[in-house]
Write a structure and sequence with these properties.
Chain lengths: 388, 188
């Protein structure tokens, strides 16, 4: 009875999210900057998905199983989290396009007959390709883990398991570094231009992905008897990842200081309280201290708090990094000396509706997966090959 | 080879705005709907006022029809392309509205047409039709001061080539390597 109630609630959430996203899509309007709220929203979830996939690879590729094999109990949940976290990213970016189906023009042209197309110089073309590979390889990995519960033959195919895991890892690393360079290759926006964006996105992805996954896994950690492992494992990733992130971020700011065009954007970022409260305090300093405390004191509550802060502040960080340089780019190249005036941007109601709708769909899918798929130890696929 | 280019003579321009109004009328049916990207009219020419000088001056900015156009490089569908005459054009049927071209343009020469949900730019459809018939773009045709010109840089006898040969001119953000073909004449 409880399971049916949970299923009905998740389905209702799914429908509510879809309706809200559709309302937002129907009421879209243009803004002064080309890439508004939905682009940082998309980047945030894409990084969380790919980052959590890298975290999974610590088990799947590098073979770390925890002091008492605890990781084995949560790996399927981790893979499911990575797979579904890409969905809100896709919804946000597809609903920001002319129409969601128009994305097919990236690969197939129908003008004057059907023809295949691949503009290899465009970072967006590579993103579309890599997302397809990402979802496909993760899906194969998840099905492998689910089916190997009932198939001795699959369990023994260790080299196949490693090959799939390696494919996931390679696609993941290429994906979020390419996402960074979608911005980093834009010479027109000096604050983005350069290879630092790929590095920053990889470091961000690992921190945000580990934090997001920690929040999700924590919901089941007590029942699975891995509370202490989860607290220590994710805290340790944050303890390593956050200083790396701080290091790259510090150099990005210093580098911008030497480039007047880039500094136009960074002076906007640095003049906002967001930078000090979220990007420094709540993304780097406080979570690092909390994670260190959680690791040594084996405190799940502290680990959870650190993870929640990284997720929230991580979004603000991406928002500022993507929005502010666009305002400065226009202001600097045309307006700064010409007295055109500054650019103002605030998310429109339709963008907020699409973003919230995407998140509702995301939460619903996460819950549906846990209810329908055998993701926890002891659960076995009984229906339609992979359902429990 | 043909390399079509624009010339705007700042020293002759009388700031009447006829080119802007003509672009709006010819390419956007005199639309009064806003151009949110530029906070301006629906026209492919952006008017920037230089308020710091001793006398009012203005600057007219539009697509530079670069020889190395970043907007074409980043387009994932080939909707932005350079034609055989060197003009940067849009195929709206292929455009997915990702706006990467808008972000990549250092001149901010594209604006977002909300009704089509695609970026648009100079040349508009009407101007392209005029050029195909051997006529000048509307902004050139209506200029009462002869401050605008358009033609083939590779033809030494073209009006634009002769004017450039006898003028001092600048190209915007030339150091970025985009090789713009919008020549701003600053004096004889």
């Amino acid at each position: 009875m409880r399971r049916w109630l949970a299923l009905a609630s998740a389905a209702a959430l799914l429908i509510a999210g879809a309706v809200l996203a559709w309302i937002g899509y129907a009421g879209r309007s243009a803004e002064e900057i080309p890439w508004g709220l939905l682009v940082p929203g998309y980047v945030f979830f894409a990084l969380m998905a790919t980052g959590s996939s890298i975290v999974n690879s610590i088990y799947t590729v590098f073979g770390y199983k925890g002091p008492n094999g605890e990781y084995e109990k949560i790996i399927k949940l981790g893979v499911w989290f990575s797979l579904i976290t890409i969905v809100p990213a896709w919804i946000m970016i597809l609903l920001d396009l002319r129409s969601p189906l128009s994305a097919i023009n990236i690969f197939i042209h129908t003008q004057g007959g059907l023809s295949l197309f691949f503009q290899y110089r465009s970072g967006i073309t590579w993103m579309a390709t890599l997302y397809t590979l990402f979802a496909l390889t993760l899906l194969i990995e998840l099905v492998y883990f689910i089916r190997s519960e009932v198939s001795e033959k699959l369990r023994l195919m260790k080299s196949a398991e490693l090959a799939v895991a390696l494919a996931v890892l390679v696609v993941t690393v290429v994906l979020h570094s390419n996402l960074g360079q979608v911005f980093g290759n834009v010479v027109a926006v000096p604050a983005w231009y350069g290879p630092h964006m790929a590095l920053y996105f990889i470091a961000s992805a690992i921190a945000i992905g580990a934090a997001g996954q920690a929040l999700f896994i924590s919901a089941f950690a007590g029942g699975l008897g891995v509370r202490e492992f989860v607290a220590r494992y994710y805290s340790r990733i944050l303890m390593i990842g956050l200083p790396v992130l701080a290091f790259i971020k510090g150099w990005m700011v210093i580098n911008a200081w030497y480039n007047p065009a880039s500094w136009e954007a960074y002076s906007l970022i640095l003049s906002s309280p967001n930078f000090y409260i979220f990007e420094i305090g709540l993304l780097l300093l406080v979570p690092f201290l909390l994670a260190t405390f959680a690791y040594y004191k084996k405190s799940p509550a502290m680990a959870l708090l650190a993870a929640a802060l990284v997720v929230i502040a991580g979004f603000v960080d991406k928002y500022d990094l993507i929005i502010e340089p666009q305002k400065a780019h226009i202001f600097h190249s045309l307006g700064g000396w010409a007295g055109v005036g500054s650019i103002h941007y605030a998310p429109t109601p339709s963008q907020i509706e699409i973003a919230i709708g995407s998140v509702l769909i995301y939460v619903a899918l996460l819950v549906l997966g846990v209810l329908l798929l055998p993701l926890k130890p002891g659960e076995r696929p009984r229906t339609l090959f992979i359902f429990k | 080879m043909t390399r079509l280019a624009h010339l705007w003579d700042q020293s002759r321009c009388i700031a009447c705005g006829a080119c802007i109004a003509a672009c709006n009328a010819a390419n956007y049916g005199s639309s009064t709907s806003p151009n949110v990207s530029w906070n301006w009219l629906r026209t492919n020419i952006r008017r920037i006022e230089l308020s710091n000088g001793p006398r009012p001056m203005l600057y007219l900015l539009q697509c530079q029809h670069c020889e190395n156009p970043p907007c074409v490089t980043v387009c994932p569908t080939g909707a932005s392309y350079k034609d055989r005459d060197g003009l940067v054009k849009m195929n709206y049927d292929l455009c997915i509205g990702c706006r990467y071209c808008m972000v990549a343009c250092p001149y901010d020469a594209r604006w977002f047409n909300e009704s089509m949900w695609t970026p648009v730019k100079c040349m508009g459809e009407e101007c392209q039709a005029r050029i195909a018939k051997g006529e000048q773009p509307v902004c050139v045709a209506v200029c009462p001061a002869g401050a605008r010109d358009f033609g083939d840089l590779d033809d030494p006898s073209s009006s634009i080539s002769r004017r450039l040969a006898n003028s001092r001119y600048v190209k915007l953000l030339d150091n970025m390597g985009t090789k713009p073909k919008y020549f701003v004449v600053v004096g004889p």
